[in-house]
Amino acid sequence: MQHSHAGFLDYVLKHSQAGNIQSVINTIDRYGWTKGWLMNIGDQKGQILDEAIRSRKPKTVLELGSFLGYSSLRMAAQLPNDAVIICVDMNPETTEIARAIHKHAGVDDRIRFIVDSTERVIPQLTEKLHINSFDFIFIDHYGTHYLRDFKLLEEYGLIRSGTMIVADNVIAPGAPGYLQYIRNNPNYRTKTHESFVEYTNDMVDGVEVTVRN
C-alpha cells in the first residue's frame, strides 16, 4: 500500500473542502470504498467510535496507531476545541500525511503526534505531557501489541476509573489475548460491537468498548 499514499493525499486535498472536517472524513471514506482499501476504522465501525466519544465526552484522548489520521479526525469532529488528542505512531511517512490532512481539515492545532513505538512512549507520557491519565484511549495499531500496551497503560496509571478504551479489529485480524484479559477482569465492563472490516460488507470484525470501573 505504501506506493499509493501520495495519491491518497492528493485525492483528499483535491476532493474535500479545506477547513471542513466532515468533508475531509467523507472524502477519505469515498477513497476507501472506490479507490483503494485503507486500514483505518472506516465509516461503519467509525460510527461506533463516534458514539463512544460522544458518551464519554473526553478532555484527554490517547490514540495508539494513527496511520493516515482518519480516526483522530473522527474524534476531533466530535470534541470541543479544548480537548487534547495525542497520537502515537511509529511510521514517519504516514504521520506526515496525517499531519497534512489534519492541517487541511483545520484541526492540526488540536492533535499532537509522537512518532515512536508505543512501548517506548507510554512510560514517558506523564512526564512529557503532564497528563496523569486519559479519559479516552483508542487502540488501533497491531493486535499482537494490544495486551502489552494496555498493561503498560495500567502500570503507569494512565487508566483510571471512568477511562473508556475502544479497540478496533478485535475479530479481524483479532486480539484474543487482549479480549481474554479485558473480559475476565473485574475492574472493567466491556462489550463487543460487531461490524465489518473497514470498506467491506462481508468480512466480520468487531470493536471492543471497555470502561474502567
TrEMBL record:
One of its GO terms (biological process) is catecholamine metabolic process. InterPro entries: SAM-dependent_MTases_sf (IPR029063), SAM_O-MeTrfase (IPR002935). Its EC number is 2.1.1.6. Keywords: Catecholamine metabolism, Methyltransferase, Neurotransmitter degradation, S-adenosyl-L-methionine, Transferase. GO terms for molecular function: catechol O-methyltransferase activity. The keyword tRNA processing does not apply. It comes from the Eukaryota. SUPFAM superfamilies: S-adenosyl-L-methionine-dependent methyltransferases. Pfam families: Methyltransf_3 (PF01596). Belongs to the class I-like SAM-binding methyltransferase superfamily. Cation-dependent O-methyltransferase family. This is catechol O-methyltransferase. It comes from Adineta ricciae. The lineage of its organism: Eukaryota, Metazoa, Spiralia, Gnathifera, Rotifera.
